[in-house]
Amino acid sequence: MLISEQKPFEEILDYVTKDRVIFLIGCKGCADGCESGGERQVLEIKKRLEEEGKAISGFSLIDMVCNEALTRMKLAAYAEAIESADSVLVMTCGAGIQTVASSTHKVIHPGCNTISSGHAEWKQAERCMECGDCVLEFTGGICPIARCAKGLLNGPCGGSQGGKCEISPNLPCAWQLIIERHSKIGSLHMLEEIILPKNWDPSLKDGSPTQRG
Amino acid sequence: MKAGSNLEKVLEGGYFAVTAEVGPPKGTSTAVIQRKGELLKFYCDAMNVTDNQTAIVRMSSWSGCILLKEMGIDPVMQMVVRDRNRIAIQSDILGAAALGIRNVLCLSGDHQRFGNHPTAKGVYDIDSIQLVQTLKTMRDEKKFLCGEGISGEVQLFIGAVENPFADPFEYRVMRLAKKVRAGADFIQTQAVFDVGKFTKWMEMVRDQGLDKQVHILAGVIPIKSVGMARYLRDNVSGISVPDEIVIRMEEARDVKEEGVKIALEIIDQLKEIDGVHGIHIMAVAWEDIVPVIVERAGLLSRPIL
Ligand code: SF4
Ligand code: SF4
After folding, report:
1. pLDDT at position B235
2. Cβ A153 under 6 angstroms from ligand 1
3. Would you call A174 an interface residue with chain B, using a CB distance cutoff of 8 Å?
4. CB nearest B163 (choices: A158, A163, A176)
5. How many domains, in total, are found in chain A?
6. A200 in contact with B at a CB cutoff of 8 Å?
7. ipTM
8. A178: which chain B residues are within 8 Å (Cβ-Cβ)?
């Protein structure tokens, strides 16, 4: 199971500053189990965002957001509500957020931080390394921690060529994908900001071991 | 003056700068560095000492810099983020500044998989842009990344690299702008072989006014052999060598002389491009040729400031 926790509400609010209408996505899988993005949490966020003057064009709870085929199918039923929204807030693990990003041309915002996969094997293209301080907000819904060979937050490095990473002709350059995605959804300007050094502490891999739960 | 290094004086004085690269030995011989220093001393304004280039372990950049400094040469300490976290980086910078190293070049570094320890753990705690920003904060605000104060001056002339030949091409200038905003004082570019593409990139740089905010030194690699020309074209990611150059090398009677001629032609064109403030010569395993190139390019003698 992927363990995730909700981002602080202030952070989420910061992400959606410019958005008037928002569509919400929750997950009936792990995020429900972790109480970070199940039905109750989605309804709770809906209420809080509405209190802040935001309109919610709809929400969808999907069994396993990380399953791309399933997510695409489910979201097709909400095409209109998603289209009318300025952005989509995804209350799932990093893998789920990236699945949504690759299923819609809308701006997506991460609602959760992913802390641990419980050592699940993650074979999908959209991967998450459970860094615990999700940056998908700034990188167009594509993870530079898991997918860039150097984990760069302000990429790409000088080795990116023809869409491929310098370490292998079989590996797409994550930063090429990030730039393409930002260009496509008209948010390339977001990359003008310098992303500051990351807080690695919540990451079980690189930070210190912590007792959880 | 931010650091008062020779390189800074030359660039701020409006001279066309020449820097050269010194690769440290895979061992403990100080003589290797000293010999290269002696050879190049009067032919450039500063010398870069590489930092475990292509992820192959060599003598550290800072120790090479100290050896050059003792010879009266202005060193540029290269620093990659592949091998150090933010604690080690800031500590090394304090040491370098204390010992009088005034120029630092910030790089991501080639991935460890390319080197002689491919199973090493890459650090990449911060990236190269964040490194530039960290050095600027240390110098201008006398603060560490964490916000705590630093005692004493941290005099640094901050450099970064850019590769106009990497992809996505249109984004490279935006990334350069980011490096300038982060605090880069000078830029050394990847080696230029495709002058047309470089010229186009410089146009975009000028359109954004970046040439007025940062000193750009264009990279030059003299090609020594046909094999090297092919290798650079086919195997080095981020370098683009037009076929035409490889063919010239293949057909040349005096291959080395052809390599020098090609380098000189490229330098001639670079000198004419608005906003290019110098060249950075990376004569990998062919340092002896640098004096010849600098002299024949009409770049002697170097200013004494
Ligand atoms: S930034 Fe990447 S690794 Fe970190 S939580 Fe988000 S998807 Fe996972
Ligand atoms: S080529 Fe792209 S994916 Fe590979 S290390 Fe560089 S920025 Fe990251």
Report:
1. 86
2. no
3. no
4. A158
5. 1
6. yes
7. 0.92
8. none
What is the distance between the alpha carbons of residues A166 and A59, in angstroms, rounded to a whole number? 40
What domains sit in chain B, N to C, each tagged with a CATH number?
6-296 (3.20.20.220)
- pLDDT at residue A208 in the model: 58
Q: Is the pLDDT of residue B120 over 80?
A: yes
pTM for the whole structure:
0.90
A162 contact B CB<8A: yes
Q: Evaluate whether B162 touches B238 at the Cβ level (below 8 Å).
A: no
Q: What is the CATH number of the domain that holds A112?
A: 3.40.50.2300
Residue B174 identity: M
Handedness of CA A65, A66, A70, A75 (dihedral sign): positive
Specify if A106 maps to a domain: yes
Which of A66-70, A89-93, B224-228, B292-296 shows the lowest per-residue confidence on average (mean pLDDT)? A66-70
Type of residue found at A168:
S
Is pLDDT of A118 > 60?
A: no
Give the Cα separation of B82 and A155 in Å (integer). 14
Residue B173 CB partners (closer than 8 Å, separation 6+): B201, B204, B205, B208, B210
User: Ligand 1 centroid to A66 CA: how many Å?
Assistant: 13
